[in-house]
Amino acid sequence: MALVAELLPQDAGRPRAPGAVRVAAFLVITLPLLGVIAAPFFVWGWGFRWVDLGLLLGMYGLTAIGITVGFHRLFVHHSFETYTWVKFILAALGSMAVVGSLLNWVAQHRRHHQNSDTPDDPHTPHHHGRGILGVFRGFLFAHVGWFFKADAPGLDHYVKDLSASRAMRVASALFPLWIALGLVIPAAVGGVISGTWAGVWTGLIWGGLVRVFLVHHVTWSVNSAGHLWGMRPYRSGDESRNNFLLGILSLGEGWHNTHHAFPTSARHGLRWWQPDISYYLIRTLSWVGLVWNVKIPSRQAQEHARR
């Protein structure tokens, strides 16, 4: 924690968060890392089992979809509509990614869009100094450093719509339960499939901690790398970028300049060569009647926003 605090600019927005919050942020960052460090010890000498790979990819996909389709495109931007029970499931899956409770995450992200890449942006990588050191400090702040800052006052103002729903308030309040289930489920599945206690531990490591680590850093990279490196085909009023690698790893969130130009669009990868798995899922759900009012910018709007 001391290293992060030392590298962050002293004027980086808000004062430090309370000690308990900083400790929690530190644990959220480091515990999955410890899982990654521990992983080789569980495969040394006998290999990486298919069930471990399945749990890693399966839990990664489910929790990443909870963030991209649920937290982001549905709850933040209302890019489509769906039933309350579908919303509840997406809220639970997004919470299992351990990136914050539903209401807090949505409030922070809406504030980000309102102030994108200005000094009031909660996690911009800009305004942190010049040169290579300034870029490094900005990247670090946008990636993890902002977790150690106190929340800006008035965040409740950003989630009045969600707070009006009892189901969404409950889903957000159950955040600790969703975290626990996100670890217990892969451990239990690993144990049942393998029939051994070793399967429980490898399930916890791969489908739990390693998966959380990967989802974390891919998601956080949209905040950091997604505002530093890549292409800017659209006028968005900020420094958001389209990054092909992030577009793949984040299930479509890496087409970040496109998203900031058309924030309510359910589709971020608007070109045929821009994979957007999250949108493909939304469109599939619309075909079976679980999703409706899917928003996509018209061709005319897209051309008008081009640089």
Quick structural overview:
This protein is an all-alpha fold and 307 residues long. Helix content is 61%, strand content 1%. The chain has a two-stranded antiparallel ribbon.
Strand and helix map with partners:
Blueprint: H1 2-7, H2 19-43, H3 50-76, E1 81-82, H4 84-96, H5 102-114, H6 131-143, H7 160-163, H8 166-173, H9 175-194, H10 197-223, H11 244-249, H12 256-261, H13 277-287, E2 291-292, H14 299-305
Antiparallel strand pairs: 1-2
Helix pairs in contact: 2-10, 3-4, 3-5, 3-9, 3-10, 4-8, 4-9, 9-10
Q: What is the global morphology?
A: globular
Helix content: 55-70%
Order of helices and strands: HHHEHHHHHHHHHHEH
Low-confidence spans: pLDDT under 50, at least 5 residues?
1-12
Q: How big a fraction of the residues is strand?
A: under 5%
N/C terminus separation = 41 Å
Number of domains: 1
SS field, number of helical segments: 14
Q: What about the largest sheet?
A: 2 strands, antiparallel
The overall pLDDT, averaged over residues, is 92
Number of strands: 2
Structural class: mainly alpha
Radius of gyration: 19 Å
What does it look like?
- The chain has helices at residues 2-7, 19-43, 50-76, 84-96, 102-114, 131-143, 160-163, 166-173, 175-194, 197-223, 244-249, 256-261, 277-287, 299-305; strands at 81-82, 291-292.
- It has 307 residues and is an all-alpha fold.
- The protein contains 14 helices and two strands; from the N terminus they run αααβααααααααααβα.
- The chain has one domain.
- α2 crosses α10 (197-223) and α4 packs across α9.
- The longest helix is centred in the first third of the chain and has 27 residues, at 50-76.
